[in-house]
Each structure stands twice: as C-alpha cells, then as structure tokens.
Amino acid sequence: MKKILITGGAGFIGSHLGDELIKNKYEVIALDNLSEQVHGPDCFRPEYLNDHVQLINGDVRDKHLLEELVQEVDAVYHFAALVGVGQSMYEIKEYTDVNNLGTATLLEALIKNPVKKLVVASSMSIYGEGLYQDQAGKLHQTAKRSIEQLKNNDWETYNGEGKLLTPIATPEFKAPNLSSVYALSKYDQERLCLMTGQAYNIPTTALRFFNVYGTRQSLSNPYTGVLAIFSSRLLNERAPLIFEDGNQQRDFVHVRDVARACRLALETDQSAQEVFNIGSGESYSIRALAQLLAETMGKEYILPEITGEYRVGDIRHCFADISKANRILGYSPQVSLQEGMRELVEWLEDQMAEDHVDKAKAELSSRGLTV
Q1: pLDDT score of 220
Q2: Is 131 left (phi over 0), alpha (psi -120 to 50) or beta?
Q3: Strands 166-168, 131-133: pairing kind
Q4: Buried/exposed code over 73-95 (b: 16+ C-beta within 10 A; e: otherwise)
Q5: Are 190 and 118 in contact (CB under 8 A)?
Q6: Mean pLDDT, to the nearest integer, of 155-159?
Q7: Hey, which residues does 253 pair with through a beta bridge?
Q8: Longest dimension (CA), the chain
Q9: CA distance 280 to 278
Q10: Strand ranges in 107-200 using DSSP code E only, listed in sequence order
Q11: CATH homologous superfamily for 3-366?
Q12: Comparing C-alpha atoms, which of 145, 137, 167 is closest to residue 282?
C-alpha cells in the first residue's frame, strides 16, 4: 500500500498523519474543503501542510470526486467531519449532513472501487460517561447525571443507591452512551464503515481518538479541542472558561502519537474489523490542565474562570484504557503531556488567535444549552 487518501487531510490530525506517512515513504492525497471555521477566510493551502501532500480542495459529499479519488489509492483514512459537541446541538442538519451523509457517500464510492484498507476516525465521545465502578467493585457502563443534580451544582456520578462512583480507564467493550449530536454522528461513521467493510471485504479499522492536542489545531475555532481554546484565551490575556467545577477528568494525547497509531493501524493486518482507543492512558482534570498551560506560557497570573455551569452534551469523566491498541497495534504513547505542552507553547509564540469563546458561550446559553 503506497498511495493513501486522507479525507480532512489538511486539518489538524490529518496534516500530522500526512507527515507520518510521507516520512515512511507513502504518497499522500489530502481531500479537504478548507472550512473557514477551521482555516479562516480565503485559505487555499495551509502553510503547515507538507509540500509532498497533493491537496484536493473538495467536499466529502461530492460523489463523483470521491469515485475518481478512490480509484487512485490503495487505502483511505476517513477524517473529514465537523467536530464541535456544543455546536452540534443546534447545527443538527449540518453535522448530520457532513458526518453521516459524507461517510455514506465515501462508502458508496469504495463499494465500486474497493481499497486494501479503510481507517476511520471515531471518537471517545461515543462512550458518553466513561467506565465507573462502585465500592464493591461492580462496573457501571451507563452512568448518567440528572438535570436536577446539575442545577444543584452536584457534578459527580452515583449508582442507583446514591453512592459515589469512581471513574476508571474506559476499554473498548464499554457500551456507547451517546450524549450529543456529534457523538451520534461519530458512532454512525464508525458503524457504517465497519459494517460496509465487513459486507464488501474491505479491511476496516475504527480508532476512537481521545482528547488530541498539539500544533496546528485551530486557535480561532471555539468548538475545537480544549487546549487550543484555552491557548486562544491566554494569548488574548483572558481567563480560560471552565464548565462545572473543573475537576472533570480527561485523557490528553499528543497528535504525533495519534498519527503514529494511525500508521500502525494501516500496517497491522490484525487490526481489520477492530476498534481501538487511542489516548495517553493518563487522566488529568481540566482545572489542572488550564493551570499547567498558563504556567508553561508564562501566564500563571491568569487564573481559569470556573463557570459553575453545565453544557448540554458534556460528560463528567472519561479516560482511555489503551491496552488493546498496545497489544495488537504495538501502540504506546511517546510524548508526555509536559513535553507536548512545551512544544505547543513554542508554536504559540508565532500564532495569532481570534477569541470567539464568549460568543460561542452566549450562543449556547441563548438556546438553553447551558444549565
């Protein structure tokens, strides 16, 4: 397999994957619509995109374009998607159209012109709440929080007897518990690809990315990753806004580790028809993350603002069990959060960021999507 198509290949993760593949002697075609929300206005080719990447400016819903492109390649990475949890709760048609219909359009093209491997970017968001256990050691896969408790600023999760549950690393067997339109669309992408791959004998792998961070992530998109959003606020001398109490736990994985995991999925025959968590295997609170970023940027005097509000679609805790990816793909993260944060801050020194966070928060509030 030497020639690879990456849908969404000019974006944050896709561009780093392009670097990884080219370094390992692959040819890369990137299909990307260069969305203004991600790339800004009048973007024809991101400066960071590898010179050896052939960029096609087009839409993943363009049936004829996809049919032409898949004839040229040996394998496909399907990364094209809209990615905002909050935004997905009011731009329902657009998220469903791009994420679900775009995937269906690609798959119909692949049915006509099968490739040797399909790798689809899924998401930790499909889990909803992560895996929990109670004091007796019993696992809880469908933990939920009620609106009533959230209105009372009670942020944690409990069992049916009202006992506090403890979050533990979430493995792939954990049942999906979809809490946003975005999560639903990512689950649809994952299942459509695996189902179609099975039916038409196209080896297919789904990678459930956790919270990916690193250079090139859009700083002016208020629906992007949390570290990029916090970076934008700090660059503009504003406090990062944190929902709830800031003690919610997440798994942050560096984009280079993710790119390497993607290549391993391509090159590992045993990955066919499998699903893998791609994370760091570590958990950090959002509050601690904001403080670490501010310190690394030399802006420790800017303390995060804890809003005490719940955003519809958010969950309390979720971090990855990556033992399956380690066992089958040989994946293990190599970039620590501290090292990755230093690299991010070095990149930020040359960046400008338009901070749209307040506007996005007001949009959610006006629609009743915060509590």
Answers
A1: 77
A2: beta
A3: antiparallel
A4: bbbbbbbbbbbbbbbbbbbeeeb
A5: no
A6: 96
A7: 212
A8: 59
A9: 7
A10: 117-123, 131-133, 139-140, 166-168
A11: NAD(P)-binding Rossmann-like Domain (3.40.50.720)
A12: 167
| pLDDT value at 360 more than 80 | no
Q: Are 130 and 167 in contact (CB under 8 A)?
A: yes
Query: Model's pTM, two decimal places?
Result: 0.95
Total residue count of the chain as it appears in this document: 371
In the chain the first and final C-alpha atoms are separated, in Å, by 50
Locate 31 and state its tokens. Answer: 């299909």
What pLDDT is stored for residue 223 in this prediction? 74
Residue-wise pLDDT tens digits, 235-256: 999 999 999 999 999 999 999 9
Task: Give the separation between CA 148 and CA 29, rounded to whole angstroms.
Answer: 49
SS3 266: helix
Question: Are the C-beta atoms of residues 284 and 247 closer than 8 Å to each other?
Answer: no
Residue 87's Cα: distance from chain center in Å? 14
- Closest by CA to 296, choosing from 341, 251, 234, is 341
Token pair in block for residue 192: 């459509």
Task: Identify the DSSP state of 24.
Answer: T
